[in-house]
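INFO batch 0412 | record 1 of 1 | parsing
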Amino acid sequence: MQTLIENVNIINPDDEFKDNQNILIEGKYIKEISSSKINTRENVKIIDGDGKYVLPGFIDCHTHILAKGFHKEENMANPLAIHFYNAVPHGKQTINAGVTTIRDCGSADFGVKLAQQRGLFTAPKLEICVTPLVMTGGHFDLMLPSGFDMEIIYPGFPKGRCDGPAEVLKKTREVKRA
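INFO prediction complete | emitting tokens
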């Protein structure tokens, strides 16, 4: 499937601004950009880009693709699997917003990244930290005053809590292994 965007303005941070350009897309790849007419197949989809702009994909450097907010009561009541299903609408919404890469800052593991790479759900390219490293009592230490620990736990997923240089080094190795 070919798509031709005609008379569009291109903003590229590595190059100068270009106006009234034509962009030929085949499948999910840009095949040609030109200020001249581009030869296409007969069944090409044409989009009028007059007055519109094309930008490179954006990178969102702080996301939690599995989270639907951080509501303690909801997190305690929901089964673990629901968190993974949250990634499906979040991934699609993020792509539709023009974001092509995200850095997940906690909860998505290699399995989520692998599912996206295998096309099991639509999402931007994932860079994952698995779990943030936190000091006891710090941000993202999810131990409640009652003693209930809200941190998501499942096989192979390390807890992020660590104190002092030796524990941080060890925890870094555990997260890298995950």
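INFO post-check: The mean pLDDT is 92.
INFO record closed
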